[in-house]
Amino acid sequence: MKINTMILCSLMLISSCNSESTKLNRKISSVDALQPKVEQGEIWGEKEVQRMNKIAEIFHDTLVETTGDDKMMRRDAHPKHHGCVQTRLTIDNSRLPQDLRVGLFSENKTYNGIARFSNGDPDFTKGDSEKDVRGFALKLFDVPYRNYLQQIGFDDEANVHDMVMMNADNFFIPNPKAYEKFMKSTRGRWGVLSYLAFHWGTLRNILKARVQVSNPLDIDYASATPYKLGSMSMKMKIKSCKEKKDSIPKKGAHNYLGERLENSLKENEGCFEFFVQPNRDPKNNNIENAMALWNEKESPLIKVGKLAILKQTGFRSEEKMKSCEDMTFNPWRSPEDNRPMGGVNRIRLEVYLNQSKLRHEYNGVN
Fold this sequence. Notes:
alpha+beta, Catalase HpII,  Chain A, domain 1, 19% strand
């Protein structure tokens, strides 16, 4: 079970982040009719819709079962956060070709935001010293456009842009067909191991992403899956520019990552350089293969800004940590010119909305 839950959390990526569980709705009405039109080689049809609905159902049931009688329903993945911190993102599109200056990158502006740093394992009681997938989510405020969730009527957060990232450059599952097979395996007698026995690429990528870290500010994070960049697709990445990295403790305290984050920001700002990777090799970088690792020589990274994690205190207070728990981050909370792309991301449109609604209903969050 330990291996199964570890792998399940990895594949959930960075989820969106009170009655009895039997009274909860199975899911919201399907968003299939509200999916964007296919473009740039995307594939989406009746089979993919059926797979999306089955995957959403399994995610729902798994979250209800793992919550049990707990008073709080936590995220299905990345439930342990080290804090939600104030940020400032400054966009510089001068290195981007003119035709790719779209959405978030259309203007050189500075946006205030909130970032959430997290551990991926569904077991939020695990200590920070254990190997794990590490997550980063960013919410930008006062952007000058409507995000996709607003356009389809599923969001009340106006002029907000979310990003979800992790410490891996590619995803663990390639496409909706594999995603459905994997999720079904989590409900079977032999669990995830039965799937991994024939899918070594998935196992390799999961194990590679599970790392020990010294400080959430010390490592890089990436979108892992493809996103739209106007007439092209892209991936996004932030690279730590912290000059002096901390060392990994031999015997770290249970919550040392949150403590180090807090201590770092008492004295100095955190710093990340923001990059996009336009897809210059669409044949090899098929956007319907979320496991594809894009070659940086063929598709170079382009620096498009800088993210400052502001100097601050108090974000690990009980009140602030509760507020961070209630917050949601959804990659579809983005303009259409920067929307998520590919079948795996289209499935996430359904799953993220379902899981967020389910969690907030259970926890009594308006």
